[in-house]
Design a protein that fits this description.
327 residues; mainly alpha; Rossmann fold; Tyrosyl-Transfer RNA Synthetase; 2 domains; two-stranded parallel ribbon; 16 helices; globular; binds tryptophanyl-5'AMP; Trp-tRNA-ligase; ATP binding; Tryptophan--tRNA ligase; EC 6.1.1.2; Rossmann-like_a/b/a_fold
Length: 327
């Protein structure tokens, strides 16, 4: 029986990359038999957020977003990472079996250093805590976007190192990517990977004027609409792909490719994109607004979600403590 698990950092409002790469997969996985654990990685977010009020707001924001998008507390444990403190102890046990070299090879760490961030020890050992998150629940399937695959592979390595030393304690997990490649790595407004840290992201519930403004920032060039273009080169088309049905998308592509009189200008495509996105999220956006109006209820739902998760983590931690001689 598979165990699905994944997490998201409450480091700001979730964006379209989080939605297509992760949240949607998480909600869809509820239709597959197995146990389901999804959590808000607040311990991880402390590596970037240093303000208690923002962290609390962000956690509720993510919770309301997930519930609005169909996360069902009756079928999944949806909880806050820090409500299962056992993971921090597991992370210590794993740290003692993990070579510095493994962590030094982490892309996301190297990217942050390259961008001039002065790393804390916590940022460096981030993948060990993430491995603990995954291994604490005997997870077998970890649905994530492409940028997290290396972290799941590192988790496999850490589990193997621990098991080789102390016996079969941890279960080996596998990453699962969205089937569509453009959803596994959603582009940002500038065509690079969408990411909060690049400032090229769009909040998934953005609407109205701010949405038009955001979409206005999608990179284009100064070519005339009548000039034939390869639609595959346009970031704008990558965005449209995420929201339009196949038939409509093929029609736009053909007209862009052909150029001439009936070819759409970039402005025209942007209007259509704003409309399609607004519509796609209309119902969950309303639900989200409603849920955000009752923070106490969100907190209560998260605590309830942690109960089953914690039960499982306590068992796994016990097994690990026994194996390495702590008991
Ligand atoms: P985070 O919070 O950066 O992102 C949450 C999820 O969104 C996916 N994602 C994307 N997918 C497609 N295109 C994009 N542009 C894009 N940007 C982000 C991420 O791949 C991720 O699935 N370390 C994790 C949180 C975490 C975790 C875990 C995940 C902590 N413990 C255990 C899985 C299992 C992170 O920072 O994700």
């Amino acid at each position: 029986r598979p165990t699905f698990l994944s997490g998201i950092q409450p480091s700001g409002r979730p964006h379209l990359g989080n939605y297509f790469g992760a949240i949607r997969q998480h909600v869809d996985s509820l239709n597959e038999p197995g146990d389901h654990f999804f959590f808000i990685a607040d311990y991880h977010a402390l590596t970037t957020i240093r303000d208690a009020a923002s962290l609390r707001t962000n956690v509720r924001d993510i919770a309301a977003t997930y519930f609005a998008l169909g996360m069902d507390p009756a079928r999944a444990s949806f909880f806050r990472q820090s409500d299962v403190p056992e993971v921090t102890e597991i992370s210590w046990l794993l740290a003692t079996c993990t070579g510095m070299g493994l962590l030094e090879r982490a892309h996301s760490y190297k990217d942050k250093i390259a961008n001039g961030i002065k790393p804390s020890v916590g940022l460096f050992t981030y993948p060990v805590l993430m491995a603990a998150d995954i291994l604490a629940y005997d997870s077998t399937v970890v649905p994530v976007g492409k940028d997290q695959v290396q972290h799941v592979e590192m988790t496999q390595d850490m589990a193997t190192h621990f098991n080789t030393r102390f016996g079969e304690v941890f279960v080996r997990p596998e990453a699962r990517l969205p089937v569509r490649d453009d959803m596994a790595k959603v582009p940002g407004l500038d065509g690079q990977k969408m990411s909060k840290s690049y400032g090229n992201d769009v909040w998934l519930f953005e609407s109205g004027k701010p949405l038009k403004k955001a979409i206005g920032r999608i990179s284009t060039d100064s070519r005339e609409p009548s000039e034939p273009k390869n639609p595959d080169e346009l970031v704008l088309v990558d965005f449209l792909k995420l929201f339009l049905g196949d038939e409509e998308l093929q029609d736009w592509r053909a007209r862009i490719l052909a150029g001439g009189e009936s070819a759409p200008g970039y402005g025209h495509l942007k209007v259509r994109l704003a409309e399609a996105m607004d519509e796609h999220f209309a119902a969950p956006r309303a639900k989200y607004e409603e849920l955000m109006g009752d923070p106490a209820e969100l907190d209560r739902m998260l605590l309830k979600g942690a109960e089953k998760a914690r039960e499982r983590a306590v068992k796994v931690l016990d097994r690990a403590r026994m194996a390495c001689g702590l008991r």
